[in-house]
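thought: fold this chain, then report.
action: predict
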Amino acid sequence: MTLATPLLLSAAVYAPILDSYFFADDFLNLVGIADRGCARFAFEPQGGHVLLARNLLMCAHYGLFGVAARWYFAVVLATHLLNVGLLFRVIHLLTRRRGVACIGATLWGVSPLHVESLGWYAVYGHVLTCTGLLIALAVFLPHTDRRARGPGTGVSIACAILLLIGATCFGTGLAIAVATPLAILVMVPAARHGA
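observation:
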């Protein structure tokens, strides 16, 4: 069992999002970028969410794609597939079993629970928050072996930055950024003895 299995199955299940179009808040965001410019739009909260990283990416996508929805959703699909690959890595680091990583990443990647996050561009930040968390875990976990001295300051700072970026992609990212370091301290003894 390899990484190709969850990637191919997830791509097959979610390829139809490439035919999606903008909806509701998507238009509000696109008009905001076109009307007020990226410098102002990037710093505007929406619904009480601080969305700096997500808004900057939306500005970049608008600059690249205009209003060609297919390209926006191609980026969303690519990000989802990146998350599937990262989850495979995280599960493999935790279990040391490729089969378990393959099954876990596949079940998560094809889950119908992703339909709204992947099919509505305005909540693309939800997908990005997951990316930040999974990259942070993929960077951090190799340093938690019982024989390791701990993650070290550089790795810890890099993970904190990734979580902070994720926190500015979607509102729930704030909870993840606060809870993840606490969970690591409790669950990973080597983290308490970092350099």
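thought: worth noting. Residues 69-95 form the longest helix (27 residues).
final: tokens above.
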